[in-house]
Design brief:
CATH topology of the largest domain: Porin
Oligomer: single chain
CATH class of the largest domain: Mainly Beta
Distance between the termini: 68 Å
Strand content: 35-45%
Largest sheet: 16 strands, antiparallel
Radius of gyration: 39 Å
CATH architecture of the largest domain: Beta Barrel
Number of helices: 18
CATH superfamily of the largest domain: membrane protein fhac: a member of the omp85/tpsb transporter family
Amino acid sequence: MFSLAALSGATCYGQISALAGRNIIDIQYSPPDVLHPADLERVQPLKKGNILNADDVGEAIDRLFATGRFADIEVEGEASGNGVIVRFVTKPERFLSGITYQGTIRQPPNAGEIVSNARLQLGAPFREEDVTKGVSRIKRLFSANGLYEAEVTPDIQPDSNGQQVFVVLRFKTGKRAKYEMPVIRGETKLPENTIIRATGWRIALIHWWLQVTQTRTTRGVQGVLGKYQKQDRLTARVALDKLEYDSAQRRVRPELNINAGPRIKVKAVEAKVSKRVLKRYVPVFQERAVDNDLLVEGARNLRDYFQSTGYYDVGVDFRIRPPANDEEIIEYVISQGQRYRLVHLAITGHAYFSEDDLRERMFMQTGSFLARRGRYSEAFRKKDQENIANLYKSNGFRDVKVTSVVDRNYGGKPGQVGVTINVVEGPQWIVDKTTLNGVQQGDRETLEGNLASLAGQPFSEANIGVDRSYLLTWYYSHGYPKATFGASWQPSSAPHHVDITYTVSEGERQFVRDLFTTGLKRTRHSLVAKRIDLHPNDPLSPVQQAEIQRKFFDTGIFARVDTAIENPDGDTNYKNVLYNFEEANRYTLALGVGAQVARFGTPSSSSLSSPGGSTGFSPQFSMNLSRLNFLGLGHTVSLQGNYSNLQKRASLTYLAPRFQNVDGRNITVSALYDQSLNVRTFASRREEASVQISQRLSKPTTAFVRLTYRRVSVSDVVIPTLLVPQLLQPVRLGIISGNIAQDRRDDSGDPHRGMYNTADLSLATKLLGSQRNFARILMRNATYYRVTKTMVLARQTQLGLILPYSAPAGLSAQESVPLPERFFAGGADSLRAFPFNQAGPRDTGQAVVSGGPGSQPTGFPLGGNALLSNNIELRFPLLGTNIGGVLFHDMGNVYSTLSDISFRFKQRDLNDFNYMVHAAGFGIRYRTPVGPIRLDLAYSINPPSYLGFGGSADQLYQCNPNLSAAQLPSFCQTTRQNVSHFQFFFSIGQTF
């Protein structure tokens, strides 16, 4: 609190005292509008028409200062007729509205580290000394990263009303210093060269010193410490005393102080324990220290470990031998006792919950294939009892008792353990009535309807806690930051029934006074304004404020978005909301390298002897160049390319998100060139332009509408019987399509539960300028179930149909569908019963082309107009946490037409490909940051057989069916071939 005299001076105080007792005819403020009119009316005790009183003036000054928006206040009085004019002359407080930087940053440090080290809090009162301290911290950060010559110049920019200040930090980083030979002191017990190599500050062999960075310095110290720990010197200490900078040479000399300490050996006696287990369970290795608490914790961990492996009576103690010969030995004395197996686990006394519900919350498990000894320990048993009791208590059973009985000689057989969990449920307490008091401005109906403790519901403190969180969150998100909650209950007239009373104190409601955005350089203000759905005079909702911040991050055009409430602790109900932006780099370049190993092939006329393809290796290179925030509109232009033995693709995409300012609605315009050689029969080329509008209907569901113009052509056709002019000519397609996708998976890269559904309907029609007419439907349903905590059952079903109509003259309806538009399947991501794209109909030589070679079959795949497949996988851990295994079964095929879809198991003859092919197999998954690397080995149970040709395409032309058998060359012989029973695939990512 401040007194009137201290703030306004004796002269002003004298003016007020001399004018006291007169009517106040006006109250003026200079400058005006520092406070919102509603806040000013609330805090100002002086009112027009009231009698002027010096005490009231003092109270006015105190209350104005309490708003936090004034740095200084003076009060003047001026006589006017029989009344007085009171004038408040103020110096408004200034607040930090944003912070940014200018200049090239040689990372490290990055921009985020620099802004964080400034420690200038957005929305807080601005103090120049805070900026000075922030600059000092940033300079220290630069120095720690070898930028000793860096200059940091703050530029303080007040806005037009003088109440907000924007700070620009201008950098000149200069050149980065390098390390030089460190000074090493202390009891090292290692050669100096060994220590220097451990730091990693110098390149081996050529002995060039690296540039200084804070991370590299820290890593160097940790490297030396790690070197000692590898020698079991767990108490070693490595300290970096200082970094001495030589400005003339631009070199930094580190000074290391080392105390190696004795070798610490932790070993187990009376039981065999691997060093890996000791390092995992004895925390001295993680904490790099040796004290009694850590050793006790290690004994407890080892006890739990042995109990989990069947030694339920294990005893673990430790002793420390006196140091001798630079060595200190810690011995864990382990008395294993008899080894047991948990063979029986029963739960009795439960009625309200099923046994399955209770077992889901238990750690104990009986012996099984994956855990032969079962899973049991004293800690597990106590934890299971606690979990079951908490479940009952949260459902109204306040007096529940959970105990257990352990039989170490279950069934009369030594070594067998049976555990019986006994549940005494007791009565269930029920809520009779819940009264909600104190709701004056809140939505009572909504609040009462969402309470967990309603009449007829089980009574528990847990539900009261849920209600408390819900009510306070609702008030907090609706502008009541000072809302409080109280709860009480008392027994009602019925036994084990209660009445609950909730009392809410809402407090004063806060509103948005104005919104300020800072830091925008290239982004248009209109883009930001459209995404801020918080407006002046709206209730101040930090929840909505944070949601707006999240939306800005989701645009991908901002590297940093900070938001704050200005003057958060001031006694005002109308507050400014601030958003400070740091724009992301506009250009991003991503390069990728991958490979596939499997049976596939490319079109080749030199030999037709392997229509099923051959084992091959296909390296793959990818590139993605993106220009973010194009024209400051938040749009993205992307150039993508893929190059491999199987595919050469380039695409240019223009993405306009939030089309027509609708959340989740995006428009995409793209151009594509694609040359694919992954079908043995032919190579395809596609030139395409499309426009697509997508709309997110809900969090998991998105719909797409797309208009596509495409020119498809085939080349390198290796089956002469396909040299029909209509099939070789380029085809123009105009297609309109709609797609809906529903993704409820927990992880799209490696899902463990949920579902994924897609449905795509396309129509190629002459109304859109298409030279072919057909409808295409492709539907997919995939589900993922957790069988146990570690095993996942995944399945996927796909159904595809192509329905041609109005075929051109000279072509059947089936033939009118261009080869690249047909369904092809087989390979790592579809049907593992086949090599890549080898499923479905094949060339049987039945078509005879005028002037062509006749009816000689080749067995090459032709694709089909129908697709049906189903994949099932059981995924489980195999070795550790990163290597998993998969058992799978695939079934399905590509069919000639819809009417040819069949579930038959057997192939009727060598011309029959419309039957269901099955494969079973085993796969290995290795978890990596970019997705699982997988190797699948499949056995095709009933692969198709077919007639093929062993020569070249030129030889096939000489096999004229009009010649007699004696006149036919010897190479005009068909051979029986078949898809191999064994298939293997190596790729990245789950199958589905």
